[in-house]
Amino acid sequence: MEEFEHKGGYDLDSRAQAVLTGLGIGPDRFNHSVESFSGGWKMRIALAKILTLNPDVLLLDEPTNTWMWNPSSG
């Protein structure tokens, strides 16, 4: 139980929802099955799964995809 708490287990749902929302998947779609999304949205869901785990390092291919990088924000 201590490890669960230490790793933020109680905050998992709120972290996942925040990440999904940040990637453009709104609350109205949280309970949809993954199979109902197109390929591009499934990639965002996979990325959300990784980001929710708070990795120390994340290496991404194609960092200039427009949904990941906004030139006006630096």
What descriptive keywords fit this protein?
74 residues, mainly alpha, 3 helices, 41% helix, globular
Structural class by helix and strand composition = mainly alpha
Mean pLDDT: 85
Uncertain residue ranges: none
Strand content: under 5%
Q: What's the number of extended β-strand segments?
A: 0
| SSE order | HHH
Based on CA inertia axes, which overall geometry fits? globular
Would you summarize the structure shown here?
The protein is an all-alpha fold and 74 residues long. The chain has one domain (2-56). The chain has helices spanning 2-6, 12-22, 39-52.
Would you mind describing this structure in some detail?
The protein has 74 residues and is mostly helical. The protein has one domain (2-56). It has 3 helices and no strands. It has helices spanning 2-6, 12-22, 39-52. Helix 2 crosses helix 3 (39-52). The protein is globular. The protein starts with a helix and ends in a 22-residue tail after the last helix.
Strand and helix layout:
Blueprint: H1 2-6, H2 12-22, H3 39-52
